[in-house]
Design a protein that fits this description.
By secondary structure, the chain is α+β, with helices and mostly antiparallel strands. About 25% of the residues lie in helices and about 25% in strands. The chain has a single domain (about 1-174), classed as Beta Barrel (L,D-transpeptidase catalytic domain-like), CATH 2.40.440.
Length: about 170
């Protein structure tokens, strides 16, 4: 996909050139981009809020794993984890429109899986829609469809990408 190959270039240019702040979500007119210092996902509400110094700077609707209730316990359970994690790695060339990895599994997740003789799974991401969709866009935006990841619309994913950094804490609540 031609446009997908341009994403890293466009993002790098925006950030490196100090793009007009009023054109980027989370920025105040004439001011710098305000990145989040904390993220809270409320699974029951299908909402994600990005905070900066206690203020919500962005709020998004999310889609979750196919089995959204309960904490992820093992590979293949289609659940989105619950707990405190961090953003760890970015992938502009994923099978989805941008992807940012969440630090699952943490030591407590590994211990739980080990006690039960399971693999905890991994590669939990915040990502956009599939680059090669199998269904109409509205289905992705209105249902839970991931294997356990947190999905956003592509427009919201671009904002998320610009408003967060590696190491940003993300709390995923039931």
């Amino acid at each position: 996909m031609y446009f997908k190959s341009l994403i890293p270039v466009v993002l790098a240019a925006l950030l490196a050139t100090g793009a007009r702040a009023d054109m980027i979500a989370g920025a105040s007119p004439g001011g710098p981009l305000r990145t989040a210092d904390r993220i809270v996902v409320r699974k029951a509400d299908r909402r994600m809020d990005l905070y900066r110094q206690g203020d919500v700077i962005a709020s998004f609707r999310v889609s979750l794993g196919l089995v959204p209730n309960g904490h992820k316990q093992r590979e293949g359970d289609f659940r989105t984890p619950e707990g405190s994690y961090f953003l760890t790695r970015r992938n502009a060339r994923s099978d989805f429109f941008l992807a940012v990895q969440v630090s699952y599994p943490e030591p407590s997740d590994l211990a739980l899986a080990r006690r039960n003789g399971w693999s905890p799974g991994g590669l939990i991401m915040v990502h956009g829609l599939p680059n090669t969709p199998k269904y109409p866009r509205d289905r992705y935006l209105s249902t839970d469809w991931t294997d356990g990841c947190i999905a956003l619309s592509n427009e919201d994913m671009l904002d998320f990408w610009l408003l967060t950094g590696d190491g940003t804490p993300i709390e995923i609540r039931p």
